[in-house]
Structures are given as structure tokens and as C-alpha cells.
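ok so for the tutorial part 2 we go from a plain amino acid sequence to predicted C-alpha cells. step 1 is just haveing the sequence, like this:
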Amino acid sequence: MNWLGLLVLLTMASQAHSMQYPCGGTCGLRAPLPVYSPITYSYGSVAYDYGLTRIVGGTGAMEASWPWMVSIQHPWAPGNKHWCGGSLITADWVLTAAHCFDKIENISMVYVVIGATQLSQPGPGAVARSIKKVVIHRSYKRIDYRYDVALMELDQPVQCSPYIQLACVAHPTLKVSELKNCWIAGWGATTARSPVKSDRLQEAKVQLIDVQLCNSSEWYAGEIHPYNLCAGYPEGNIDSCKGDSGGPLMCQDKNADYWWVVGITSFGKGCARAKRPGVYTSTQYFYDWIEYNMRPQTVESVS
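step 2 — the prediction. this is what the C-alpha cells look like for a chain of 303 residues:
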């Protein structure tokens, strides 16, 4: 089936089966699933070998665990067409990494799937959208992943449901370093050398790592930018990987149930190596840039 056919089928299935309502108001919350929804969580603690940017050492996520997760897809991508991850932050905007578009010349071929957990069986809660516009930070440089942040405007808004919710972008006043319950998720590779991406969304708990330590001589030796976050473990073993790029680093609020997207999966040396944790673009640092570039009739992006 071509991607256009997938768009039509997912949209029809969503309209027929999902409990939909406009997106807005709250963000970062998981809505209760309807009674008809099957819960399939048979992966346990096993990290299956599937990989473009990935979760290594993770487990299969339950349906609607991360309802703002977006699969950015391209018909030429191998396997399940997944290319990069992203976060739905309004009904018609997705936050992702700038480097996801390095090799894409024709944006009209890119589409997104929202509300799915298993890409081969998206389910009745999933929808697909084409891309209207991509905004890449004007200072982005592929050579060292500086200013690795981008926005995608969907061709039409989505409706929220138990499967689709909006992410909360970390506010400038949020004390990110104090957040303890942090997770990463994505459809990327599950082993460092795997060329295959995961069909089922993988998730893993990670720790925020002090940026000064992360940038020290035995770690990244000065390659970390002031607007980066590091997350993982000093000993490695659990990390984002190929195919997870653009996806969220998420931390639960200290005093509430909702989750903040505090980072965008950006780069790393290998996957799950000791003293080489995943490096993420801080959403808090780019909060004003994100807000500005989502405004209607924006002619030019702001640095």
C-alpha cells in the first residue's frame, strides 16, 4: 500500500472508532483508554532487535503510553517507513530535530502517523497527516548538531483522543534538573549495530546527567552545547539510538501527573556506551523560538 492509501485508511478508521475531541487546554496527560481498546503488552523486559535512531535496553510500550509520540515517515525509508520521531505540541504542529531533514529533498513525500504504538498495526486510534511546512532553526549545523531543533506544520489539525494528546513543552521557569522520573521513547534500533527499526514503540527510563560531567574530558570533551541535555546512565546499556532522532526526552512534573517534553533526541557517540549518554536539545532553551514560529502568518523564523 502506498502512503497516500495509508493516510486515507487511518483517517477513516479514526473517524469511525475513536472518541475524539478538540486538542487544547491540558497537555502532557494520558487519557484513559476506551473499553473496546485491546491492551497488548507482551514484550516484558526484553529489548527486541528491530533500528534509524533507537531505544536500546528498553521495553515495548503499552497502548497510548505516550500519546503525543509521532512517527515521521518517508516512503523510501526501509522496513516500516519510520524515519524519525517527534512530539505533537499543538493540534497541527510537531516538534522534532533539524537533522531529521538532512537527507530529505522533497518534503511533500514526508508524512506522520500519530496515535500508533505498533506501526504495522496502527489501530483505530491512529491518524496520518501530510506536512504543510517545515521550520528549521536558521543556525542549525549538521557538523556538530548545533541548534538541532525543527517544527513541522501538519496539513490539517488532528483531533485529540485517548490515543492522541498534546505534549507539554518545558517552560523557561521549570527546574528541569530537579525532575527525577524521566523516560525516552521511539521506534528506532534496539541494538547499536542493527539496521532494523522497531515495529513497536520502545520506552526506557533514564537519568538526567549533569551537563558539566557530560562535557568533561573522559565523556564528550567539550562537544556539548549550552542548550543540550544529557540523559542515560554512566555505565551505558540504556540509550536512544538510530531512528529515535527527533523524539522526546520526557520527565514527569514533581507535583502533578503530567509530563514535560524537556529534550529532543539529537546525537550521541554510538548507542548505550559507557560515558557516552544520549544528547538532547533542550526544549526549555528554545521555548520562545518554538512559540514564535508556530504563530499564524509567520513570514520568517526567528533565531
